[in-house]
Specification:
The chain is α+β, with helices and mostly antiparallel strands and 133 residues long. The protein has a single domain, classed as STM4215-like, CATH 3.30.2000. The protein is 23% helix and 40% strand. The chain is built from three helices and five strands; from the N terminus they run E-H-H-E-E-H-E-E. A five-stranded mixed beta sheet has the order 1-2-3-5-4. The radius of gyration is 17 Å and the shape is elongated. It starts with 8 loop residues before the first strand and ends with a strand.
Length: 133
């Protein structure tokens, strides 16, 4: 069950994403944030011109607990959330980056988090890439 008429909207990052979504659930539907959550370790290989970096990114999308998903309420919410996470993984995750020569993207996990007024779909990606020194 796709709700294609509702576009994804980026959070403006002036406030904590999850707190804002839980305080404003009617405006939070398909609001998202993508952020670098830091190094996941691994050795950095240096030569005179480049270094290998490993980091983790998190893409979080909000889904208010309300009527908009279908007649089966939370079951339909779950269906939409997982369809969206799978599509996001296809667009920015492992499948999209399969042909990349400058970066390696690995999907670490797709999960959900419960909030006060929203459920959050979370896509975590490990990204490895060369950076000029």
């Amino acid at each position: 069950m796709k709700l294609e008429h509702v576009k994804f909207r980026e959070h403006d990052n002036r406030q904590d994403f999850r707190a804002w979504c839980n305080a404003n659930p009617q405006a939070a539907f398909r609001r998202f944030q993508i952020r670098d959550v830091g190094s996941v370790g691994g050795s950095e290989v240096y030569d005179a011109q480049q270094a290998w970096h490993v980091t983790e990114f998190e893409c979080v999308v909000a889904y208010p607990r309300d009527y908009r998903y279908g007649s089966q309420a939370l079951l339909d919410l779950s269906d939409v959330l997982w369809e969206d996470l799978n599509e996001l993984d296809n667009q920015i995750g492992t499948n999209q980056a399969a042909g990349a020569t400058t970066a390696t993207v690995t999907t670490i996990e797709k999960t959900t988090e419960e909030g006060a007024a929203c459920v959050f779909g979370v896509l975590r990606l490990k990204i490895e890439f060369w950076r000029a020194t």
